[in-house]
Amino acid sequence: MIEIVNVSKRYGSNTALDDIQFTIEEGSCYGLVGPNGAGKSTLIKILSGVLQDFEGDIMVQEDSVAKNRMKVKKRIGYIPQDICLEETLTAQENLTYFGSLYGLRGRDLKRRTAEVLDQIGLKERGKDKVLTFSGGMKRRLNIGCSLLHKPAIIIMDEPTVGIDPQSRNSIFSIINQLKSEGSTIIYSSHYMEEVEHLCDSIGLIDKGKLIESGTMEALLAKYKKPSLFIAGDQLEIELLSRHGHVEPKGNGFLIESERPLSALQDLIGEFRKNGIEPSRLELYQPKLEDIFFNLTGTQLRDS
Ligand code: ADP
User: Fold this and answer.
1) Half-sphere exposure of 138 (CA within 13 A, CB side)
2) Residue 100: which of 84, 112, 91, 88 has the closest Cα?
3) Average pLDDT in the 77-104 region?
4) Residue 253, CB half-sphere, CA atoms under 13 Å: how many?
5) How far apart are the CA of 145 and the centre of ligand 1, in A?
6) What whole-number percentage of the chain has pLDDT above 90?
7) DSSP per residue over 149-191, as a string?
8) For the segment 18-47, what is each residue's pLDDT rounded down to a tens digit?
9) Which residues pair with 213 in a beta bridge?
10) How much of the chain exceeds pLDDT 70, in percent?
11) Would the CB of 38 count as within 6 Å of ligand 1?
12) Rounded to two decimals, what is the model's pTM?
């Protein structure tokens, strides 16, 4: 288990993290979600032992990051947001270099380099220089560099920013494979849909504070409000609000209703009577984005 205990971090007068406290279960995939500037990278750097000057502590299976940083670091594979590779070397040479930094030598290093090249889908490109790689391939190699020592905990800071959908999918397969092997994964992102898709637990961070934490199921159950989503040109709020509280959402409206199915039937009747044809009308399942909106009053859009 990883326990984040009252962690705060200030940069001059700017409080990047304010008394953060939560736990991450072993073998889970934990998503750290929040807008840009929320404090995700700062927390990840502290967790990975990269940033040493902070208040509070983090316990990784009983070992303190503050007191025993090097011991904890050996169990962690940290994948930074910025790609950190030597472009004039081949993929294989980069992996070999990082493996040697983790203390691997000789046959073990050779074997792990080959295994990781395969794991990140770059087996055929191992002997090519990194400068010939696409952005997505570099990101995958960047991930590979942190896996050579077989860390039990893998920490990824926004690994899919600025890459094509195909590379994004191949990063998801790497993560799914690591999950199936029982690794603990901490995944930071401002893309809600990615986190929903990959993670079983989440922490929502906003302006340096943890505003919610728990399993995806528990959070959705806690904040779930039965709703209808409706979109179309001729909609009038007055008519919609007869059926519950109305909030604009994307190109339409969300209507909260205790009895969404009856509201849906009634609305269809009223639309027929008034000659209104909505472009979409459906029962709505709340998403992470709605929880964030509920808690902060601001949208966290994929951007
Ligand atoms: P996120 O990863 O969620 O985008 P960060 O952890 O990068 O957020 O940043 C949190 C806050 O800390 C922001 O206000 C950012 O400007 C500030 N910050 C981050 N790194 C530094 C730094 N090295 N020096 C000063 N301020 C920083």
Assistant:
1) 21
2) 112
3) 94
4) 19
5) 25
6) 65
7) T--SEEEEESTTTT--HHHHHHHHHHHHHHHHTT-EEEEEES-
8) 999 999 999 999 999 998 899 999 999 999
9) 203
10) 98
11) yes
12) 0.85
Token readout for 293 is 């909106």
- Which residue's alpha carbon is nearest to atom 10 within ligand 1? 39
Q: Is the pLDDT of residue 233 over 90?
A: no
| Ligand 1 proximity of 161 Cβ (cutoff 6 Å) | no
Query: Which domains are seen in the chain, by residue range?
Result: 2-215 (3.40.50.300), 225-284 (3.30.70)
**Please, what is the Cα angle at 44 between 38 and 46, to 5 degrees?**
110
CA-based angle 93:94:95, to the nearest 5?
90
Q: What six digits make up the tokens of 284?
A: 């709505």
Q: Which atom of ligand 1 is nearest to the CA of 42?
A: 6
Kindly write down the DSSP assignment for every residue of 186-218, as one continuous string: EEEES-HHHHHHH-SEEEEEETTEEEEEEEHHH
Is residue 142 scored above 50 in pLDDT?
yes
List the one residue out of 287, 218, 288 whose CA is nearest residue 33.
288
Q: What is the DSSP string of 217-240?
A: HHHHHHH---EEEEE-TT--HHHH
pLDDT of residue 302: 46
Position 41, amino acid: S
User: What is the Å distance from ligand 1's center to 35 Cα?
Assistant: 11
DSSP structural state of residue 275: T
| CB of 34 shorter than 6 A to ligand 1 | yes
Angle at 7 between CA 74 and CA 294, to 5 degrees: 115
- Residue keyed to tokens 């736990």: 23
CB 171 within 8 A of CB 159: yes
